[in-house]
Amino acid sequence: MTIATRRLALFGLVVVVLAAGVGAYFFAGDGRAARKDSAKGAAKGPQAVLITSAVVQTRTLELYEEVVGTIENVIDPTIGAEVAGRVTRVAGFTGKKVAKGELIAEIDAADFHIQARADQAEIGRLRSLLEQQERVVERNKKLVGQGFISQNAIDDAVAQLNALRQTLAVARARAEATGRGLTKSRVLAPIGGEIETQIVAVGDYVKVGDPLFKLVGVQLLRVHLLLPEAAATRIKPGLKVVLSPPAAPEQILEARIDEIKPTLGINNRALDAIVKISGVGTLFRGGGTVNARIVTNSLDGALMVPEQSVVLRPAGKVVYALEGNVARQRIVETGMRQDGLQQIIKGLAAGETIAVDGAGFLTDGAAVALPKPRAVAEKGPKKGGT
Description:
This protein is an alpha+beta fold. The protein has 3 helices and 26 strands.
C-alpha cells in the first residue's frame, strides 16, 4: 500500500466517525423532545368532547291521528237568470272577487220600462174612477136620506166603489211585479265570494232559469276527514283538529270536529268526520287537500328529550346526564316520539341537564365542553302526535 492510499483510507475513516457522532446527537435530541411532548399530553389528560345540552322539562303530550282531508265550499250557488231577455252587460268574470250585492251582469230591461209606464197609467186611470165613484156614493146617500132614490141605488154605487178599489189593488200589484222584474234584470251577487265560472256573454239570449255564473263563497268551508272504520270508537264530535295547508305546513289552524256522518262511505267504507272552518284570510281553498291531526287524547307530565340525545349502546338505549363537565350514562326506557322529541318513561327526572348534539361520541365518565343549557320544551300542551 502506498502512502497516498493510506492517507485516503484514513481520511474516509475520519469522515465516517464524524457522521456517526452527529447522527447520535440529533437522535438523542429527538428522543428528549418526544418524551417531553408525551409528558405534556399525560399532564393534560383526555380531550373534552364539545356538545350541546338541554334541560329536561315536563309537558303535555297530545296523542293524535294524522289524515289527509279534502275541502269543499259550503256555499257555492249557481246564479241563474230570473227574467228572460238579451244580456247587455257582463261585469263579472272567472276569478273575480265580488261583494254581496255587487252588479255582475245586466239583461235588457226595455220591455219592463214600457210595462212600468203602462202600469202607472192604469193606476192613474183607476184612481180617477175611484174618486168619481166615491163622490157618487156620497150624493146617493144624501138623496136616499131625502127620499128621492131607493136604497138599491146606493147599494149599487157602493158595490161599484168596492170593485174599483179591488181593481186598483190589482193594478198596483201588477206594477210591483213589473218593478221587481226590472230589478231582476240587474244580476247581483247573492253572497260575497269569487266567480268560479263565467257562463254567459254579452249578446246571449237567456230564459228564466238559464245559468249565468258559478259563484263560490270563501266565508265557510267544509273539511272531510276520511278515517278507517276501526277509528269509530276514538273519533267523536268536539275533538280538536289541527289543520295545515300542504303549500304552507307552518300555517296551522285549530278547529273542532262538528259532526260525523251516520253512515260509512259506500265505496271506501270510511268514516267521514266533518270540520267547518272559515276560509277568509287562509290558504285553504275548496277542492284542495289539507293535512289534519285529530287529537284523540293527551298525556300530562310527559318527559320529552331531543331524539339525538338518545343513543344505542350495548346496555340498551342510554342518555348522558351531565354532572358538571362529566357525562354520566343513564339507561332509559323510551315511549312515543313526535316532532323531533322522544318520550322518556324511566331513567331520567325533570330538571336534569343532558347531552344533545355530540351524545353519540360520549362514553360514561367522558369529559365534555358545552355552551349554556337550553330548555327542551315549555310547559303546557303542544301540537303533535304519536
